[in-house]
Specification:
The protein has 687 residues and is of the alpha/beta class. It has 24 helices and 22 strands. The longest helix is centred in the N-terminal third of the chain and has 28 residues. The protein is globular. The chain binds adenosine-5'-diphosphate and magnesium ion. This is ATP-dependent DNA helicase RecG. GO terms for molecular function: ATP binding; DNA binding; DNA helicase activity; hydrolase activity. Pfam families: DEAD, Helicase_C, RecG_wedge.
């Protein structure tokens, strides 16, 4: 149960005065649906006003508060132009207070003629005349009665004004309870952070770094604590230790030796699986680093130990590819491998379900379908989740629970995540890193080319295809509208078919029916079609070694991590590969720097770190892509600065300071509920 003290914060937005049906949409757009959302809608910036005695003291463009006396109203004759209130300051300077729209009524009421008023606004010059357009505030009295000289400016949506939103936030701030302190007293004192309520109030009043940092820390702390609860809960669970005797692995005849990093990872996994409590391990390895071989070893350990293993892929295409790879690699081991996706129906499906139930199938590869209720296992001992970043923490836990909460779990991701963020996203897991590429990889020749040279690029593609080689062509990304992405892809598809021939090009995008998408993909994978035109949906992990050219249109629109993923599609065969990054004409400084970086390095981890530096890491926080935003309050800078501290503090609380019992533990519980770390909270409920 949520602590009662938080109830006013979770009251819905319409409990605030002035929120009716008309505001619902605009508020929802900003994510403001509950009182607490308003309190946490922190200002983007502040307008700093200076109180001046008269306009001689004010600079043009400056935000000021100045006493003025209205002398005359001037409406335009048509009634459609601006309404002007002419006024003088105390030493006779004339200024016009200009109102557009239907504001004359309000203006007259606020600014009666010949009565001195304090006016706040930005002083401008219009021709020779001084002007203040739409004064922000007008008051009879100056000084303290006038209110803040430092005014917050909030992010808005259509249908909202600053004044309106300010008033609502003001109301919400009035509802803030005092909350018990969850931050360790020493930490709080050392950093001179205000208490929770004060921190929120101060954050709306001015640029208070300490206050903002505290609020960010709270969020990071709650998150770290939730992950730690998951971890602790996991340690309490009794799993089945799986010890492999190598009899299957010894029969493996892979065409290569494992790299040092692969061996180390397999060793770590083997160690985990031999433990009582279920493994929770993340295998992080760049595209092409050889995660599949590691997964296969893990699954064979499970089978050697008498259990079944499941490999979960995010899409049908990936599931099929994994299936084929695994069957090929495991040939000669006698291990029974099957595939199950949502599209398997009838007899075939029945026989697979039977095999899972009676243990005839050792390894199952598939999509979510493998965890449907109707699917029962004889003895599922290991779940491998590929492309983990597609699944948020919540989903991950759900999957594990489907495996009765006792199966060992190996998550794999090709998304290189900076170290700091790994902790944020995967804090509950142990991490193995494949930081070494299999030998013999040729670097991908990456070039940045202006879009105007499209003809040259197409000619190059033509030559490439004429040599019997394949290519990917990734279409521009129009950020807001998926339909526009698709339109662009279809256009490019048509254009390339004109040049290369009807049967030389195929198309994949998100709105194609799955079976068509798969069929098109399959024609490309089999080599039947030379060029694959795609929106960014080309699946991470798709493996077509004969494809040695990657063209990416409007590359500047993609994040570094994404470019890196895309480029990773090529460079998988014996052939030297090329990646062409086509850039538009208007390239920002950052854009230029990012493309240059792509040319310079192929190290995914380095690119991830740089991406974090250059653009704040929003993209790499993979959970955002899956719709589960990791952090709302903390900025990337604050994450970098405070995450480890928050993590350590959470650990100390759990391991030394009495966990969630005791008064600080009680407070920490409140923080979990406040930040809706549901997965942690659910475990609290469970006991
Ligand atoms: P990832 O899933 O990490 O992107 P894959 O598992 O698909 O990478 O492996 C990429 C390619 O590298 C595959 O063709 C695989 O056979 C090959 N490979 C994996 N490990 C090695 C190794 N140790 N030596 C040489 N080739 C390897
Ligand atoms: Mg893979």
């Amino acid at each position: 149960m949520r602590p009662e003290v938080l109830n006013p914060l979770f009251a819905s937005a319409d409990s605030l005065k002035g929120v009716g049906p008309k505001l619902e949409k605009p508020l929802e757009k900003l994510g403001l649906t509950r009182v607490k959302d308003f309190a946490y809608h922190l200002p983007d910036r502040f307008i700093d006003r200076r109180v001046v005695a008269n306009l001689d003291d004010a600079g043009i463009g400056e935000n000021v508060i100045v006493p003025l006396t209205p002398t005359q109203y001037r409406a335009s004759r048509s009634g459609r132009g601006p309404f002007n209130v002419m006024a003088t300051d105390d030493i006779g300077n004339v200024v016009s207070l200009t109102y557009f729209g239907r504001a004359s009524y309000t203006a007259k009421k606020q600014l009666p003629l010949n009565e001195r008023r304090w006016v706040a606004g930005k002083l401008d010059q219009y021709g020779d005349a001084l002007q203040i357009v739409h004064p922000d505030h007008v008051s009879e009295e100056g000084g303290a009665a006038f209110g803040a000289t430092c005014e917050p400016v909030y992010a808005l949506s259509d249908g909202l004004t600053q004044g309106r939103l300010q008033a609502l936030i003001e109301q919400a701030l009035g509802e803030l309870p005092e909350l018990p302190e969850w931050i360790e007293p020493g930490q709080l004192a050392k950093r001179e952070w205000p208490a929770w309520r004060d921190a929120l109030l101060l954050s709306h009043k001015g640029a208070h770094k300490a206050a903002r940092d505290r609020l960010a820390y709270d969020e990071l702390f709650a998150s770290a604590l939730a992950l730690m609860l998951v971890r602790a809960d996991n340690r309490r669970r009794k799993g089945v230790p799986l010890k492999g005797d190598r009899h299957l692995r010894d029969k493996l005849r892979l065409p290569f030796d494992l790299t040092g990093a692969q061996k180390r990872s397999v060793g770590e996994i083997e160690g985990d699986m031999a433990q009582q409590h279920p493994m929770l391990r993340l295998l992080q390895g760049d595209v092409g680093s050889g995660k599949t071989a590691v997964a296969l070893h893990a699954m064979l350990i499970a089978v050697e130990g008498g259990a079944q293993a499941a490999l979960l892929a995010p899409t049908e295409i990936l599931a099929r590819q994994h299936y084929e790879t695994l069957v090929e690699m495991a040939r000669g081991t006698g291990v029974e491998i099957a595939i199950l996706t949502g599209r398997d129906k009838g007899r075939a499906r029945e026989s697979i379900l039977m095999g899972l139930l009676d243990g005839g199938i050792d390894i199952i590869v598939g999509t979510h379908a493998i965890f449907q209720e109707t699917v029962n296992y004889r003895n599922l001992g290991l779940v491998v989740i590929d492309e983990q970043h597609r699944f948020g923490v919540g989903q991950r836990l759900m999957l594990q629970q489907k495996a009765k909460g006792t199966a060992h779990c190996l998550a794999m991701t090709a998304t290189p995540i900076p170290r700091t963020l790994t902790l944020a996203q995967y804090g509950e897991m142990e991490v193995s890193r494949l930081d070494e590429m299999p030998p013999g990889r040729k670097p991908i020749d990456t070039r940045v080319i202006a879009t105007e040279r499209m003809d040259d690029v197409v000619a190059g593609l033509q030559r490439h295809v004429a040599e019997g080689k394949q290519a990917y062509w990734v279409c521009p990304m129009v950020r807001e509208h998926e339909t526009e992405d698709i339109a662009a892809a279809e256009e490019r598809f048509d254009a390339l078919r004109q040049v290369l021939g009807e049967n030389a090009v195929t198309l994949v995008h998100g709105q194609l029916r799955p079976e068509i998408k798969d069929a098109n993909m399959a024609r490309f994978a089999s080599g039947e079609v030379a060029v694959l035109v795609a929106t960014t949906v080309i699946e991470v992990g798709v493996n077509v070694p004969n494809a040695s050219l990657m063209v990416i249109e409007q590359a500047e629109r993609f994040g570094l991590a994404q470019l890196h993923q895309l480029r990773g599609r090529v460079g998988r065969g014996a052939e030297k590969s090329v990646c062409l990054l086509l850039r538009g004409n208007t390239l920002s400084e950052t854009g230029r720097e990012r493309l240059a970086l792509m040319r310079e390095t192929q190290d995914g981890f380095r690119l991830a770190e740089e991406d974090l530096r250059l653009r704040g890491g929003g993209e790499i926080l993979g959970t955002r892509q899956s719709g589960e935003q990791a952090f709302v309050v903390a900025t990337p800078e604050q994450i970098a600065e405070l995450l480890e501290v928050a993590h350590d503090d959470a650990r100390v609380l759990m391991e030394r300071d009495g966990g969630l019992t005791g008064s600080r533990g009680e407070a920490a519980r409140t923080a979990l509920y406040l930040f809706e770390r549901d997965y942690g909270v659910q475990l609290l409920r469970g006991g």
